[in-house]
Each structure stands twice: as C-alpha cells, then as structure tokens.
C-alpha cells in the first residue's frame, strides 16, 4: 500500500537525521568544528526536506477537505505531476470525487423523475417549513385547485386569502377530510390531509389536496351516458301507445267517412283528441330526440361563435314572451369581440332553460328583472351569467338542483338543470350557482 511506502521513507529520514545529530555531537565533543558545521548543515537540510515531505501530503489532504466542505466535487487533482506518493493520493481523491458525482447524478435523476410524476398527477401537493413558511416543493396542481399563482412562502396566501390560509395551512387534518373552500366565484369541495416530518433540525408540513367536484364530474359524465340510454328506451316505449291511439282515431274517422249513417262522428271530440295526441307525441319525440342525441355525443359540433350573435338569437326568441309577463330583461357584453368555441344548438338550449327558470322564479315579483351578462375573468375564462331577482333557491335544496329528476316544483321533470350541467361538462366547462332565498339567483356558465 502507498501509505506503507510513505511511512518507510519518513522512517529512513528520521533514522538519517538521528545519525547526523549523533555524528555532529561526536565531532563537537572531539573539537572538530569544521566537520561539526558541515554535519550541522546536513541536519538543517534533512529537517527542511522532512518538513516539506510531510507538508506536501497534509496540504494535499487540506485541499481535498476544503473541496468537500464547499461540496466542490468537480475539482480535479493532477495525477501526472509531483512525487509518486502525492500522485497516488491525488488518484484516490479523484476517484472519490467521481463516485460522489455519480451518486449525485443518480439522486438528481431520481429527483427529476419523481418531480415529473408528481407534476403530472391532478392531486395538489405542497411541503413547507413550519417555522419560516418557505416552500420546499409544490406542484402546479396545488395552485390550480386553489386558483393561486406560484409562491415561495405561504405568507403570500395569508396576505391574499386569510380564510383560505387558515383552512389549508393552519388547520391540521391528520385524517383525510372533505371540506368546502370559497374561491373567486364558486365554492368547491376538496379532500385534504397533511403530515409533519423532520429533516435535521427543521420541521416541515406536507399537505395533499384533491378536487372532489372535478372527480365527481368525470364519474357523473359516465353515469349520465348510461342514464340517458335507459331514458331514451323508456321514452320511446311511452310513444308507442300514443301512436297506437292516433291510429285508432284515424280508423274511426275513416269508418265515419265510408259509412256516415252507421258511424256518427263527434268532430269536436275527434279534433280535440287528435290535437292532444299530436302535441303530446311531438313533445315526447322532441324530448327523446334531444336525449338520444346527447347520449351519443362523442364529438361536439363546435363552431367559433361571437357571444353577441349568440345573445342576439336568444333575445329574438325569448324577449317577447318574457316582456309579455311584465319582466324586464337585459343583455350585456363586456367586450364586443368575445367569442366561444361551442355547439350553438346545445348552448342555446342551456340559456333557454336558465331563462325559463328565471321567469318562473320572478313570476310573483312586481319589479321582476333578468340580466344576461358576458365577460372574461383574469384567467381568460369567458363567463355568461344569468341573473334574476326572483324567489331564490332554499339552501337546503341548493346542492341537489343538478341531480337528475330532482325538482321542488309541482310540475316539471327535474331534468332541466341536470341537462344544462351535462352540456357544460361536454364543453369541458362548468355551471355555478349562487342564490339567496327571497333575493334571487345567478347561474354562471364558465367556458
């Protein structure tokens, strides 16, 4: 081993130095000063040489430890210059540096790999220092769920949204909890859990959140497709007896024409019956057609449509009947160039449904007003809002209004709002409702 050669060379130097000291002492004792001076100079040279010999190794080791202290593992020690023992030492240092760099490279690759995985998931994750609030790591989903820009310290959230800060960061959720949080224009449900861990002397908190509403919407979309398929089948079954009754009436009419003396025809009854069956059949057929087409939608017939044009069509269709009921209606657009990529037929159906609901809510109001507004928020989302100052929706049923077949009215199928939500989900948008009983409601379509 190299260190044995180093020790051997150091040992010979010491033996040689001791021999010179003995020789110098001997010549001094014999009073041969000339020889004593010469040997003394030899002693001085050996001392200097030994000091340099020992110092070289300690200097090399000091340089290496200095590099380790500042984590400078890129430093390269010359292996082809200097004494053999130092070159051997430098070779060892370089080997250590190579090994550490390989380990760091592997750790970095694993960190990047893990980071990319966590960035791809739709679950929000953040880790931060409990004492300073500095963010150790977070992914984009965390900011997207909370509708917050990227931040380096959680105090940024405290200054912007104190209530949200207390709910997310100050409250501990040892077990996963489902909570509602208020954002800009809506309230969403999230699943939250957290834990505290220690790194050296610092304590960190890890928080994980998941948007429950978004997950439920995806599941609900699949359930809708199954539900609509069943509904279409049932509706078509109900049309069959109506069509059969229409055939019977037509047969009676034919007999009355062929044998008027034997078959006296009550024209008013026949006309009323046929008219009723016709209206009902057309309504059911239209109902079935709408749901059948919706259940089969895999690719929307999207078109670039100006919001002004969309509003113009709705105004021509709905404004006369609404004003006839002494209800004031207003259409307003913040930005004449607002455009949407939508299936016009379906979105018109949504707006008509919301307007009819607003009319129903305002029917007992003296100064009834309905407003349809379009604008863009700071995230460049286009929002269409339908306001009314009607009766509002009771809080105890507000969460159920989008459930298929749920209705608080004495008449109605309970499918209107659930259909609106389904259409918005097909457009990868959402519908939001805010309502105060006795004051009115606002439905927001967010694209």
UniProtKB/TrEMBL annotation:
It comes from Winogradskyella luteola. PANTHER family: HYBRID SIGNAL TRANSDUCTION HISTIDINE KINASE C (PTHR43547:SF2), TWO-COMPONENT HISTIDINE KINASE (PTHR43547). Pfam families: HATPase_c (PF02518). The chain crosses the membrane at residues 7-29, 35-54. GO terms for molecular function: phosphorelay sensor kinase activity. The keyword Protein biosynthesis does not apply. SMART domains: HATPase_c. The lineage of its organism: Bacteria, Pseudomonadati, Bacteroidota, Flavobacteriia, Flavobacteriales. This is HAMP domain-containing histidine kinase. Residues 230-447 form the Histidine kinase domain. Keywords: Kinase, Membrane, Phosphoprotein, Transferase, Transmembrane, Transmembrane helix.
